[in-house]
Specification:
25% of the residues lie in helices and 23% in strands. By secondary structure, it is α/β, with parallel strands linked by helices. It has two domains: 12-149, 3-Layer(aba) Sandwich (Rossmann fold), CATH 3.40.50.10740; 155-299, Glucose Oxidase, domain 1 (3-Layer(bba) Sandwich). Keywords: Carboxypeptidase, Hydrolase, Protease, Serine protease.
């Protein structure tokens, strides 16, 4: 995998919206943080445009992303907000210049599409909190963005979740993944996620249990769960039951749909739609070890 150049003080970084509409005040705190890192935010021409739910028309959002991908003076691209919309523009983008001069793309949720699409080029990306979320995030989550982008060591120790499977094992593999709904949405497309022989991370928000099950079954049918090194499950927020109870919680569903494969399944990683959303270098090799108390995630340097 290719690692984009790490950031340095005075670097210019792009700020754009490819999904849900964003108001300027929603990212004021985040811009202050970026400037405190001695970065120079460059606001896209259509970052605060509106088209109903979306941050401008498809053409406007695609134009901003294309401009930031092509501009060699921009060393990273930060996304303001998720929601929905990046899927509508992915096929309108030309990644030729980006492949020649890679840069960090920073976001999660809807931006999972870009993580998956770009992973297929062999380029690393950063799954991390959106700019809108900086004000409500833990200091550790925001600091993890800076540390990753400036090339500092990336190690997490997470308390063992009682439902995890894999005590005493050590697993090494390339990390891929993101929002489960978006991974599900890429199946059968050019952006389809390559999970073969890799460590898959998933998280999600505001889904019904039966739909969570349906997405995992669909990934299994598409061969996405069969040959993993491990499965890492982040925050699962507001996963609801239906009027007729599904009869299994999200942990049971996950273990049930992966039991035949026997690889470790680690629950409770602090990443996803929660204030403690730690950054993950997608495409980077990581080593995962577990003892009686902690699961340790060590990213290669």
């Amino acid at each position: 995998m290719t690692t984009p150049p790490y950031l340095s003080p005075a670097d210019k970084v792009g700020v754009i919206s490819t999904a849900k509409r964003t108001e300027p005040h929603e990212i004021e705190h985040a811009l202050t943080v970026l400037k405190s890192w001695r970065l120079q935010p460059v606001i896209g021409a259509n970052t605060f445009a509106t088209d109903g739910f979306l941050a401008g028309t498809d053409a406007q959002r695609a134009a901003d992303l294309q401009q930031m991908l092509d501009d060699t003076s921009i060393k990273a691209i930060f996304f303001t907000k998720g929601g929905y919309g990046t899927l509508r523009i992915i096929d309108d983008l030309d990644f030729t210049a980006f492949k020649q001069n890679p840069k960090w793309l920073v976001g999660y949720s809807d931006i999972t599409l870009l993580h998956s699409h770009i992973h297929n080029f062999g380029i690393e990306t950063l799954h991390a909190v959106m700019l809108q979320g900086y004000a409500g995030s833990t200091p550790q989550a925001v600091e993890s963005v800076r540390a990753a982008l400036f090339g500092e060591s990336h190690v997490y120790e997470v308390p063992v979740h009682e439902r995890s499977r894999g005590e005493g094992e050590e697993v090494t593999g390339t990390l891929v993944g993101g929002n489960l709904s978006m991974i599900y949405a890429t199946i059968g497309s050019e952006s389809e996620m390559d999970t073969n022989g890799k460590i898959l991370f998933i998280e999600d928000i505001d889904e019904y249990l039966y739909h969570y099950d349906r997405m995992l079954v669909s990934l299994k049918r598409a061969g996405k769960l069969a040959n993993l090194k491990a499965l890492v499950v982040g925050t699962l927020i507001d996963i609801k039951d239906s009027t007729i109870p599904f009869g299994r919680d999200a942990y049971q569903i996950t273990l049930e749909q992966t039991v035949q494969y026997g690889y470790p399944v680690y629950f409770g990683f602090p990443a996803g739609h929660a204030p403690d959303n730690r950054s993950l270098i997608m495409g980077r090799e990581i080593t995962v070890t577990q003892n009686n108390e902690f699961v340790k995630f060590t990213f290669a340097t």
